[in-house]
Amino acid sequence: MNIMAEQPHKTPLLGMNPEQLRNVATSLGLPAFQGGQIAQWIYQKRATSFDQMNNLSKFARQKLHENYTIGVEEPIKASESIDGTIKYLFDAGNGFAVEAVYIPDDERATLCISSQKGCRMGCTFCMTGRQGFHGNLSVAQIINQIFSIPYSQSLTNIVFMGMGEPMDNLSEVSKAIEVLTAKWGLAWSPKRITVSSIGKLAELNTLIKTSSVHIAISVHSPYHNERLQFMPVEKAYNIETIMQNLRNYDFAHQRRLSVEYIMWDGFNDDNVHADALAELIKGTSARVNLIRFHSIPGFPYHSSSDNRMIAFRDRLNSKGIICTIRKSRGEDIMAACGMLAGANKKHSY
Fold this sequence. Notes:
Layout: E1 11-12, H1 18-27, H2 34-44, H3 58-67, E2 68-69, E3 77-80, E4 86-93, E5 96-105, E6 108-112, E7 116-118, H4 127-130, E8 133-136, H5 139-147, E9 157-160, H6 170-181, E10 193-197, H7 201-210, E11 214-218, H8 224-230, H9 239-246, E12 257-263, H10 271-280, E13 287-292, H11 306-318, E14 323-325
Parallel strand pairs: 1-2, 6-9, 9-10, 10-11, 11-12, 12-13, 13-14
Antiparallel strand pairs: 3-4, 4-5, 5-6, 7-8
């Protein structure tokens, strides 16, 4: 891929909508309609240099090159797992980096993308959360994770489940969703996109009302005091309040609501917790994804056994709840859930 290196002083066009690109065109003394042509080159033809935009004049291409960059930048590094999962490291500026994970699975090809450098939610079981917060990603940096990998045009699904809390950067995440779903962008169905959150309520409500993407809520315990032990945000965003709020929305048809539930041996994996979780999500039509825990230094619990996870799943299934055990992918390259740690380029990998 011949990708032009981005210059620090140049603004990336990636992530801009047609109106913004028309403003770019007119600011350079070009006809406004050429903003629409630029949008087509970036999002539909996947141009990686202005020289490829051959229906623009040489003057127009030169002005764009002098003042802007497309914003598509190759990953710094890629690491491939024995199971085919690939983790990509991206420069996020100021000495920091973020990671995205490509997960091929039969006919599906999912990319797990990041929305922040680090995270301020402070979940103690998460490597990203332990690093603290180093800044929000721009829409260009979010979309670049999708556009710059070799498998970009064969992706079937995007999940905002990488580094950061998407609701803590909702403005740029929403712009990225628009690029993915708008007719002038990739024209994807919102059903191909899932956004995960700890349940930051005001922003979560805004996302639900302004988009049709799937929603995943990180629960991990149905009990306030237990969730608070590992998720400090439980103090501000109580899980019972979050679920009560979600009952106000219709997730029974085109849109899906999921509960993410990491299972820790002897802590949250018994029948009592299964029954309490069923009670917690009653009336929401939520389905449950059980997640194996991938051990990190200094955390006191280990993953539940397969038998405990199967029993937990079966108990929820018996109550009419769709519950599945998520495949663990990419653990050998630190690409599995909770293991992304690309906050500092000097200490990544």
